[in-house]
Amino acid sequence: SIKSGSAKAFAHFDVDAVLDNSLNMSSATDNGVGLFTVTNANPFAYVNFLVSGSVVGATMTYYACYISAQGAAKTSSTAPISTYNFHDTIGIVDVHKMQVVEHGDLA
Hints:
Number of strands: 9
Mean pLDDT: 83
Helix content: under 10%
Radius of gyration: 13 Å
């Protein structure tokens, strides 16, 4: 069984949205520059699950990036996310080597 408080889903993927490694995530979809949707294999009980992440940029320009909820509505099985740069090109950008983690209660 999955213990309370542990990550219920994670994924590592690149700008091509192909999952390199994952737990309870079935896919990632590229929705445009810096915009993705991750889909869970098993849904969460509520839409208020936590989504967080990090990136490892391909160059120093993108080391000051983070992943955030996109502002679009989540469902119990999907989470829209964005990759933001706050170094020298401020705004939503495509980055490489993204890691996304989700916490919450599974349905």
